[in-house]
Amino acid sequence: MSRAAEVREERRALQRRRTELRARLETAGGQERQALRLELAGVEEDLVSLGRRLRELEPRHKVSYRATWAGKEGQAWDRLQYQTWAELEGTEALEGPTEREQMLQALREAREAATPTQRAYLAAVEGGARPAAVARGVGRDKSTLSRTLARGRANITREARQRYQLKRAAQAGEDGVPVLDLRDRETLETVLSMLTEKQRLYLTLYYGEWMSLGEIGSLLGVDRSGVLRTIRRGLERLDSLVGGSL
């Protein structure tokens, strides 16, 4: 059996365990419920790690986008990303839509978009706790927690950069609401890169190919209501990027 096959088998076992834990959570209470939630969070993190490992073993071509971070703005970002969340929260805001304010807002939004587990671990470490102590407190291996922290920081940094880029690209529309011009290729690629693969596919079929919800469902073998939910989540995600309209 190849290493990729072993990883897939391990992932299937964890997926079965996740289903079992979710079912038990529906009837559990008290300390048992808390223990189940912690175990479920650990399983979710392990599944993410296995997914990343599988992509390394079976790489696929991905469409990338080019983001430019040059000059003083890029240097300012480099300084910001090494500050803790508490330090950023305590930063005095300047009047007007400054570059620093846009960066801080992008960081806050990216932080909120992180998983609950990542936010909890980051808050504990940034609050002064040692990673080893945090790992013992939640019953996790230190290396697993370190990977979760690294993944959380990388995700926050990547998403904050993307959000900042979109905020700079947004123009004031009617009533002062920010509007993104998706005719700009770089802006469009950045927007699409922030959606899940399924959301990109469904939105492309719905708006680009003019297919109905039923036609998309028939083509992909999914329920019509599931298609609708995915499209709605994608649109909500897009709307949240700049707090305006596309």
List the helices and strands and how they pair.
Blueprint (H helix, E strand, L loop, with lengths): L2 H23 L4 H28 L13 H10 L4 H5 L9 H15 L2 H11 L4 H8 L3 H28 L1 E2 L5 E2 L5 H9 L3 H12 L4 H8 L3 H19 L4
Antiparallel strand pairs: 1-2
For the biggest sheet, the summary is: 2 strands, antiparallel
Structural category is mainly alpha
Strands, count: 2
Kindly provide the radius of gyration, computed on alpha-carbon positions and rounded to a whole number of angstroms: 21 Å
Q: How many DSSP helices? A: 12
Measured as a percent range, the helix fraction is over 70%
Shape: globular
Mean pLDDT: 75
The domain tally reads 3
- Looking across the biggest beta sheet, what order are the strands in? 1-2
Low-confidence segments, given as residue ranges, are 61-78, 92-96
Strand content: under 5%
Q: Please provide the ordered H/E string of secondary-structure elements.
A: HHHHHHHHEEHHHH
Distance linking N and C termini: 48 Å
